[in-house]
Amino acid sequence: MAETTNSVEGRVVMITGGGQGIGRAYALSFADAGAIPVIVEIDGAKGDAVAAEIEAAGGQALSIRTDVTDPAAVKAAVAATLDRFGRIDVLINNAAIFVTLGRQPFWEIDLEEWRAVMDVNITGCFICAVAVAGPMRAAGGGRIINISSSTVPQGIPGFTHYVTSKSALIGMTRCMARELGDANITVNAVLPGMIETEVENAGRNDAGRAAVIGHQSLQRQQEPMDMVGTLLFLASPAAGFMTGQSLCVDGGAAFI
Fold first, then answer.
1. Which of 23, 43, 84, 123 is most buried (CB neighbours < 10 A)?
2. pTM score, two decimals?
3. How many domains are there within the chain?
4. Which phi and psi (to 5°) does residue 143 adopt?
5. Please, which pLDDT band fits residue 215 given cuts at 50, 70 and 90?
6. Do 189 and 231 form a contact (C-beta atoms < 8 A)?
7. What CATH number is attached to the domain comprising 196?
8. Secondary element (H or E) of residue 190
9. How far apart (Å, rounded) are the C-alpha atoms in residues 26 and 224?
10. Which domain holds residue 57?
11. Is residue 2 part of a domain?
């Protein structure tokens, strides 16, 4: 009989971009739920700070400075995690370029910026998924959760490179779900809406915030904690028969 518990107690959860913003909230929340976050973060000091927060509260965590666009660095992070904990149960592909992007029409996007967004937002997720697929197969299962965006079904203008990268992530999710199903590895995507964190957002102003909230069915500012329940569920045994799906968690701004 399939397990129905939603507990993530003791699960090793690798979170890319886990040292700041939404990723930090994920790391702290999984630790509160008894999981062991592995914070894969390009800013090593920020990753270390989150790990220290978790350990000060009595939890376990590991911080590894990692550039997700560098296959060797990602492979080393996976090896360090396996050496410390013996397994990787969950990968949350969260690292992305967004808050530093200014709003602009697609014909004004610099090609170098376009390529940087694609390199982190889609290629980085691919590299990380490749790196964990082997250990998860060997362990008899696992979870890959890709963080997409509700800008995809809405086709939000001004961020064509970001929206395109997050659209590709949904397609990648579906293909990987097909290819990893025989190994009992589920792959799902979550599409958050506009979330405010401690990280300053270059492309957001008060008028834009008001417009987004006004378009939502639930008309309040989305917070990082609004995402946590969905991620905990997808990482738990209760979601063991769900794969290849895209779940929009944005207060009803988009319906898919």
1. 23
2. 0.95
3. 1
4. -135, 135
5. confident
6. no
7. 3.40.50.720
8. strand 185-192
9. 8
10. 12-249
11. no
Does residue 136 carry a pLDDT above 80?
A: yes
- Domain presence at residue 256: no
Distance of alpha carbon 109 from alpha carbon 114, whole angstroms:
7
Tokens of 42: 């390009």
The pLDDT tens digits for 8-49 are 999 999 999 999 999 999 999 999 999 999 999 999 999 999
How do 36-41 and 62-65 pair as beta strands?
A: parallel
Please indicate, yes or no, if residue 5 is contained in any of the structural domains: no
Q: What are the residues facing 40 on neighbouring strands?
A: 16, 64
Instruction: Give the DSSP H/E element, type plus range, for residue 117.
Output: helix 111-118
Q: pLDDT of 87-120, one tens digit each?
A: 999 999 999 999 899 999 999 999 999 999 999 9
Classify the phi-psi angles of 251: left when phi > 0, otherwise alpha if psi is within -120 to 50, otherwise beta.
left
pLDDT computed for residue 199 by the predictor:
67
Query: Does 4 fall in a domain?
Result: no
Catalytic residues: 162
